Amino acid sequence: FSDAEESESDNETAEQKKLRLAKKYLEEIEKEEAKRAELKELDDAVEKRLQKDYLEQKGKLRIEVADNYVAPKESDVKLIRAKEHRLPLTCVCITNDGEFAFTGCKTGSIIKWGIREKRKLACLTYKTHSKYITKSVTSVAVSTDSKYLATSDMSPNIQIWDTHTLKHIHTFKGHKDTVIGLVFRKNTHDLYSASKDRSVKIWSLGEMAYVETLFGHQSPITSIDALTRERAITSGGRDTTVRIWKIVEESQLIFNGPEGSLDVVKLLDEEHFVSGSDNGSICLWSVLKKKPLCTINEAHGSYNEVPCWITSLATLLNSDLFASGSNDNNIRLWKVSDSYKKIVPLFNIEISGF
Predict the structure, then answer these.
(1) CA 129, CA 192: separation in Å to the nearest integer?
(2) What sections of the sequence does the record tag as coiled-coil (predicted)?
(3) How far apart are CA 120 and CA 81, in angstroms?
(4) d(Cα 130, Cα 225) in Å, to the nearest integer?
(5) Which of 248, 280, 288, 287 is closest to 264 using CA atoms?
(6) Phi, psi dihedrals of residue 133, rounded to the nearest 5°
């Protein structure tokens, strides 16, 4: 006991002392229980996070959110212009925290946008950075931690920039033709690139070094995507195949798509993906089956009896929602339902395209 407590105890009866000590004991128990509850709450949060990460890694995490989405009003869509983007945009990426967007254009310009501010923050052009940018940007990608921005253009080179300052860091050389697509493996600084030279290359930004080259496609690669696993997925255009590159195993899975040119592919999760072709079809796939689980023909309709070809796809990872773009001036949102056996149209967003 402290001196104050001893002095206090001299002037109290045995009953009062017993009551005081009992209160003190209860206060200590309350503190211990509160701390234990905090730790249990923390343990529960950690357990949920670990379970979510495990399911995501295995490709079994699925959040059903599509029914919560409604078509935006005209007032919800804000058109932002920049004089550096005089020609059609070719690519876009958004940082993992949703703070910034980067766009590339046929004029050879790359713009950093503040999503919250809804305005241009910085710009790179072939005039101001002619050493690193040619006249048409083909791809942009940003690492999960927003440390690096990777860009490609009509040259065979890949440029690495500081995302925050847009200062040039490094140039990767090795492809023999135009680099069409770039993607960072999630939560890493491993970069995958796809080129018209029909190859996929792997680069390590930790060492700023080339790692290896993957061959297999019989025609120029048209798109590339990746998530957490050491795998990349690509579409092979006129060879009508999607290939999953199992990098550690040094093997690949081949999926034969519809006739025409298989132009774009995007992962829904580690086990499922969607593809789009110039014949207007959208296919939903499982990595365990060689044929599509579901196909939507002429997903964006037709013009003069010619199907509107699928030019872009975007997925909300580990969910039942994805979007598609075409030359019909519409972005269409779709719901994946019935255990990945069905694609249901949700709504369209009318917007001027190319």
Answers:
(1) 24
(2) 4-49
(3) 9
(4) 28
(5) 280
(6) -130, 130
Q: Two tokens at 346?
A: 């949700």
Q: Which residues contact 329 (CB under 8 A, 6 or more apart)?
A: 350, 351, 352, 353
Average pLDDT over residues 191-208: 97
Residue whose C-alpha is closest to residue 83's, from 107, 112, 49, 56:
107
Give the Å distances, CA to CA, from 214 to 55, 182, 194.
28, 14, 10
Placement of tokens 């002619």 in the chain: 130
Contacts of 317 (CB under 8 A, 6+ apart): 227, 267, 268, 269
Distances (CA, A) of 177 to 106, 173, 214, 220, 343: 17, 11, 15, 9, 36
Q: What is the pLDDT of residues 119-165, one digit of tens each?
A: 999 999 999 999 999 889 999 999 999 999 999 999 999 999 999 99
